[in-house]
Amino acid sequence: MPEKISDNNHLGRYEKLRISLKELVYDQNDAIDEVVDALIHMTFKPPVAAQPKAIFTFLGPPSVGKIYMARQLTGLLEEVPAFKHLDMEQYNDAESAAQLLMPQVFQDQIQDGELIRFIKENPRAIILFENIEQADNQFQLTLIDLITKDEADSGINCREIIFIFTSTLGSILYQSKEFLESFQKNKSRAKGLIMEAIARERKAVFDVVQEAIAPKLLIALSRNYIILFSKLSFGALERIGTESLAYLAGHFQAKSKITINYQNISSLIKLLILTQAPIVTVNKVRQKLPDEILFKITEFMRQDKTMPTTISFKVTKGAEEVLTRLLKEGDTLLARLFKKNETLELGWHQYRRGTTLFFSINRAEICHLPPSRELMRAERPTVTFSEVGFKNIAGNKHTKNILKQIIHTLNSPELMKKFQINTPKGMLIHGQPGVGKTMLSKAFAKEAGRPYIYVSRSDLFDPDYLRLVYLKAREFAPSIVLLDGIDVKGLIEGVFTGMPVDQLVMEIDALPLDPEESVFTVATAANIDEVPALLTEPDRIDIFVEAPELDREARRFFIEKILTKPNDGKIDVDRVVRYISGMSGYELQRIGKEAALYAIRHNLPCITEEILIEQINIIKYGSKLEKKHIHNLEEDLKMTAYHEAGHAVLSYLLLPEIKIEQVTIAPRLNTLGFISYSLDDFPGNLSKAEIFNNICVLMAGRAAGIKKFGAKGMDTGAASDLQQATHQVYTAIANLGMDEELGNVHSDTLSRNINHQLYSQIVEKRVSHWIKEATSHAEKLVAAHWQQIDLLATILIRQEIVDGNELESIMKKGSGNRGELKLSP
Fold it and tell me: Which of 278, 356, 411, 620 has its CA 20 to 30 A from that of 297?
């Protein structure tokens, strides 16, 4: 305990207090000066009735000496003999808080609350309320009323009491260069910024969101002494570590008669401090450094019973060189380790020389910790360090290259300065469900070397939570906020609507432009048209990246994962990959699981290609119907076989670039038969000839049915074909200007916006003409290639399914060349 300062000369006494505090409390000279100046001010200012001697609010990051300074004040000030420390975390509900202020029944007697009793017994004291924001708000209001009222009203005299409130609220501002510059230039303005930030802080109490500090108490604190504490420097932590190890050496020698000697003590302590990263606190330095030294000693004693007379700790030249490189980062080193979730790992070598035992640090290297931190997992929002990089994502080469370019931009502030643009604030990755938008976003965070906070679903609709998200993200800046699915809709007050964006816009607009403090927002959406326009304005989420459907490489990756399960070794990966074109990532993940479940249910030893393809068809087209549920089964299957064979053969002839995966007549929920194509082969731009060819293919099913079964072949099975063909013909004529008679006229625009009768008759006439011509051409080709159609239909009736390779063989067995199209429309 430091010696009390007593001096009749008030100014001299307080100058001694100033010097003593600066020797005891590290790196808080500004805070100490303000406290001492306030004490001088109080001494010479006439007392105010019904007011405490002083109300201090100590604000700043955790573990920087706020509580320690309060204790030292009590130890150094002669006029303050008593000290009371109240941790408000223990009084965060009305019942526990009442124990401090309200009368209590004890041993059949009514006595004052704990705090009231202490004040009456100790009229001159310092009372510390640690983390006042954690106290029940009603307690906060009652407390400020109590300590500011006249003794006649409150029943207590607080005129010689110094009240100190501590809080870490608003400490995120200490991460901001802008704030630190403001703090140096204008401390009053800096305090105002802090109090404004605290006024916006909220807390949840039994699902009710309320102010972290009751407004009335906050106003009272603002009118009194606000003391700002700064973050501790690495040098301050080193001094604390030095004191701890010195105390350990003295205590250990007194107990064991063994001398502990620290060689290169400065380097030793710095290395040990860095091993406490990513989260380095004063308490960890004070407690863990001696623990590390003791652990080495006790570990040796378990193995060697011969006690040394001296134990020496040293650092090798190699470890010193690593430390020198790290310390070039200055006070940003600890912040960088914290944000990157990294720590320093040491290698130790022990040996004896005579009666001296040596522990030598011979290796030091930075290592990345696993992504989950228990400390951060226990609270929301959760900061995460992605383990998924671009190398873990198959395919998507073009998209990944674009994302790499964006990362290069974010990591090149000098280029942004050169081209006179601000640091980008956000990016939208959009694409169909299941194409990997979320995984690409997490990989982006990994490649950018930034931690991220993930927000989705109902959290997107919670403005208070979004505010906390961006507060936490700024603490870890440069960082990323991942908003997954911002096109989502939900119920707000009974109305189905999109997410509210006012708070989000406010947070993005308020982000600092300094690249070192960058918080980059990555949003995903399945439907870009549903994204609120306010979010995509310039200097918000204004970079757009499309995630396309999974390419062949990505699909192959999913199938190769399935092959790690028990299989018969005969699965043709390339063939299966053709079958899964157009499927989403969600659907591809289901294939392996469903195939495995099928094998288990049917007591099969492994997965086969047949099982895989059937599961693919179930997911894409629905389950097979039981044949007993189909009326006139044999007849229906035969008619379906010729119908699908007509489609398949003409598709092979007229659309050779589009590969057929399979032709099947296995009845399913939505169809009695179908042809599946490889979506990779579909052209992005169609010519008139290609459209007409496709219409001919659509007409070929009914044409084949009529040729085989006569009038009976004109059944309902062609309904979908006719619908598609008619729509395509109308589009070609009315929208695409492909009709020779109508010419380059978008008649659809005229009929919708001017007069619905304009061009209607000629469009009807030409639609009928195109359909007639396509039907005629299809019938001719069906007749010319009937041998292949008949053979294919026969095989389908026998085995239900024919894949693309088998179809190719069938076509080669027939005679004649591919049909040549002569356009007549």
Answer: 278
The closest alpha carbon to 343, from 370, 376, 372, belongs to 370
How far is it, in rounded angstroms, from Cα 178 to Cα 605?
66
Name the amino acid, one letter, at 568.
Answer: D
Of 105, 110, 124, 116, the residue nearest 162 (C-alpha): 124
How far apart CA 621 and CA 619 sit, in angstroms, is 6
Residue 573 parent element (H or E): helix 573-579
Asked whether 236 and 281 are in contact (CB, 8 A), the reply is no
- Average pLDDT estimate for 322-329: 94
In a domain, 685, yes or no: yes
Please check the confidence at residue 76 and state whether its pLDDT lies above 50.
yes
φ, ψ at 198 (rounded to 5°): -65, -40
379 and 347 within one domain:
no
Residue 5 belongs to some domain of the structure: no
Q: What is the CA radius of gyration of the chain?
A: 39
What pLDDT, in 10s, does the model give residues 511-564?
888 888 899 999 999 999 999 999 999 999 999 999 988 888 888 888 999 999
Please count the structural domains in the chain: 5
pLDDT tens for residues 365-389?
999 887 654 444 446 788 998 989 9
Backbone angles phi, psi at 556, to 5 degrees: -60, -35
User: Do 534 and 601 belong to one domain?
Assistant: no
CB-based contact 781:821 (threshold 8 Å): no
Claim to verify: residue 538 and residue 420 sit in the same structural domain? yes
**What number is the average pLDDT over the span 195-203?**
84
User: Domain range spanning residue 739?
Assistant: 627-813
Same domain, 611 and 635: no
Burial (CB count within 10 angstroms: exposed 0-12, middle 13-18, buried 19+), residue 273: buried
- The verdict on 649 and 793 lying in the same domain is yes
Q: pTM here?
A: 0.69
Contacts of 397 (CB under 8 A, 6+ apart): 551, 553
Task: Quote the pLDDT of residue 805.
Answer: 86
Q: Is there a single domain that holds both residue 341 and residue 214?
A: no
HEC string of 704-758? HHHHHHHHHHCCHHHHHHHHHHHHHHHHHHHHCCCCCCCCCCCHHHHHHHCCCCC
Model pLDDT for residues 654-683, shown as the tens digit of each residue:
999 888 888 988 877 667 778 888 766 677
Q: Are strands 310-315 and 356-368 parallel, antiparallel or unpaired?
A: parallel
